[in-house]
Amino acid sequence: MLELQDVHTHYGLSHVLQGISLKVGPGEVVGLFGRNGVGKTTVIKTIAGWVRPSSGSMRFDGTDMTGAAPEQVCRHGIGLVPEDRRIFPGLTVEENLKLGLLQVPRRSRAASRGKLDEIYQRFPRLAERRRQMGTTLSGGEQQMLAMARVLAGAPKLLLIDEPTEGLAPMIVDELFELMAGLARDGIPIVLVEQNVQRAIALTQRYYLIERGQVTAQGESANAAHRADLLEKLSV
Ligand SMILES: Nc1ncnc2c1ncn2[C@@H]1O[C@H](COP(=O)(O)OP(=O)(O)OP(=O)(O)O)[C@@H](O)[C@H]1O
């Protein structure tokens, strides 16, 4: 479904991604793990078109998307939930979600309402707070809103970057439960998450990134692969 081949990305003279190749199949949840600063967010941003690769290729759903702009990537069905959440200030929870709904052009009023109801069922906390300003939500709730807004655009693949960073344990549990729900529903996800022990249980496969390269990959259910990953990350 998504395939990156030998992707190199630079920030100026800094050669951050040094030949990343990875695949995500239909319905697959794939983890990108690694220490701080190794390039995980840059992989996500490169897929989303926020950063242009200097070489290599990317295919999504049978289309060559190498170097595509963020809006094209988004239109092709890749939804990004960024690390900093980007909740629109001055808009309520529902207004934030309605902006997400606009991602799908020509959706009928009834279909939009249906989608919103579906989102509120998945995220009951957002339903309770639908009239509250988005930026007044707790960090964890803002993370839910960021996810829900992307889901309103009916993405074919989700990129989720560090969703639980800095959040209280209880809300972290809720977020993992929500992501498990998305996984059960067959929504493919690329997940960057520092909490590897929890995240590994959610993913089917993983890539370990070190210094801008994939240095290990494996099946999450394979005990030896898991042990190898946790050992390499010393967790
Ligand atoms: N806009 C930028 N300009 C220059 N260098 C950058 C930029 N963004 C990131 N970097 C550098 O690129 C490297 C990879 O950063 P990236 O954020 O992709 O890593 P990461 O693995 O996601 O780390 P973290 O877990 O800390 O977010 C780091 O050395 C970082 O300092």
UniProtKB/TrEMBL annotation:
**The ABC transporter domain, residue ranges:** 2-235
Recorded hits in InterPro entries, A to Z, give: AAA+_ATPase, ABC_transporter-like_ATP-bd, ABC_transporter-like_CS, BCAA_Transport_ATP-bd_LivF, P-loop_NTPase
**Superkingdom, natural source:** Bacteria
The record's keywords, sorted A to Z, are: Amino-acid transport, ATP-binding, Cell membrane, Membrane, Nucleotide-binding, Transport
An example molecular function term from Gene Ontology annotations: ATP binding
Short name of any one Pfam family annotated for the protein: ABC_tran
Similarity comment text for this entry: Belongs to the ABC transporter superfamily.
| UniProt xrefs under PANTHER family | HIGH-AFFINITY BRANCHED-CHAIN AMINO ACID TRANSPORT ATP-BINDING PROTEIN LIVF
This chain belongs to the protein called: Branched-chain amino acid transport system ATP-binding protein
Q: Which organism is it from?
A: Roseateles asaccharophilus
> What taxonomic ancestry is recorded?
Bacteria, Pseudomonadati, Pseudomonadota, Betaproteobacteria, Burkholderiales
